[in-house]
Amino acid sequence: MTETAPDLLYSEAEEDLRAAVRSLLADRTDTPSALTRAESDTPYDPRLWQALGAEMGLAGLLVPEKLGGQGAGHREAAVVLEEIGRSVAPVPYLTSSVVATETLLGLDTTNGEVAALLGELASGRRTAALAVPFSYGPDSLRLRGGLDGIVRTAADAATADVLLVPTGQGLYAVEAGEATITPLTPLDLTRPLADVVLDGARGTLLADADTGRAAVRRGLLAGAGLLASEQLGVAEWCLTETVAYTRDRKQFNRPVGSFQALKHRMAQLWLEVVSARAAARNAADALATGSPQAPLAVAVAQAYCSRVAVHAAEECVQLHGGIGMTWEHPAHLYLKRAKSAQGALGSAGEHRASVAELVGLPGPA
């Protein structure tokens, strides 16, 4: 039986969605406000999240209509994440609307507790975070014994209303107020990390251990796959801004972008970004269609896109010259987002190992 070729192109509806999200983010996220918020104790912009999540309905893209969502899919969510990456928008979309939501969709959605929580997340009224280290990928999940101990470096735990805690006893929903949450100082100040102490916490059991583990793996797989689209957005912004700057910046009465050495660097980066787009779109399409090749597509996308985003951000900083090294220029925000995402939801090395295993190649000695 032959498999249908993946659709890597954007549909008209997806382009319309992109235009709407880009317009909103352009109005609500600028460099001064991003820098001010990064230095504050409230890294996320609640008004921006209200506009994106609730008013535009983007928080519920992955949730079926019967459960209060938009009934869209991973391709549409990927477009949103591209634009979030392009603007390094400070919103909990990846952690709440993708990872946590996908985890809940892997459970019995006829369960009243699960359905109610999905409806709240889809409406944008509440957010959830998966209480595992942000470095965990689909194949590196390790379960704790119960609702005890410390979860290190959980993404967005400090801003979430509900924590999804996978344990050896099952998957629990824990109100954030039940845990002791200590915010950390992350490299990427637009995506907060925190340590979560669960000792004495009370939670609602949503699923048994086996079902919970499978659901969490589903959430992490979707998160890793769609994180590639966010990394694509970071890389595209860096390339676009670098080309524009080197076209305007002059040296020896010539645009610096006309120097052959810089032309070669930007041409190479363009090739990498185009390849990253294909990898990210392939992962989003595989997740959307439920393809059996989805784990392979996600592993390929993460192994490649994480490197491209970092390279693009590094080139952006360097080719902007002295201005690229300043705090006032946003290039450092993109470099920090790219570097922090490189180790999120599974490292590039872990994803390369997954690719080797999935295609039947021998692993490292």
Automatic annotation (TrEMBL):
Key words of the record: FAD, Flavoprotein, Oxidoreductase
A Pfam match: Acyl-CoA_dh_1
InterPro entries, per database record: AcylCo_DH-like_C, AcylCo_DH/oxidase_C, AcylCoA_DH/ox_N, AcylCoA_DH/ox_N_sf, AcylCoA_DH/oxidase_NM_dom_sf
Domain Acyl-CoA dehydrogenase/oxidase N-terminal: 11-100
Residue intervals of the Acyl-CoA dehydrogenase/oxidase C-terminal domain: 211-357
Cofactor(s) this protein requires: FAD
Keyword Flavoprotein set for record: yes
Alphabetical list of PANTHER family matching this protein: ACYL-COA DEHYDROGENASE, ACYL-COA DEHYDROGENASE FADE28
Family: Belongs to the acyl-CoA dehydrogenase family.
Stated name of the protein: Acyl-CoA/acyl-ACP dehydrogenase
